[in-house]
Design brief:
It is globular and about 30 Å long. It has about 90 residues and is α+β, with helices and mostly antiparallel strands.
Length: about 90
């Protein structure tokens, strides 16, 4: 069981963000994982990604990507401005 999010997990998430064209500034990744892992949209428009603690990261990452796409993420150029008030 994962007890702390490390650079290994963050780098794997960054690969998904880069593939979807989501700015790294548009996400918040707490260092405490939880079970189940989750993705939500914060009031400031950024995505909060809580890493899954109980399952292997490789098993959870496809769910993370599907959740981000389902929430309208992706399709923009890499490094774009984070969504927020007045920005889709």
């Amino acid at each position: 069981m994962l007890s702390l999010v490390t650079m290994k997990e963050i780098e794997a998430i960054f690969e998904i963000l880069d593939r979807l064209g989501i700015s790294r500034e548009a996400v918040v990744i707490p260092l405490r994982p939880a079970s189940p892992g989750a993705v939500s949209r914060r009031a400031d428009g950024r995505f909060e990604i809580v890493v899954e603690a109980a399952r292997p990261l490789a098993d959870w990452l496809p769910e993370l990507e599907a959740s981000l796409v389902g929430m309208g993420a992706g399709g923009g150029p890499p490094g774009g401005a984070p969504p927020g008030p007045g920005r889709p």
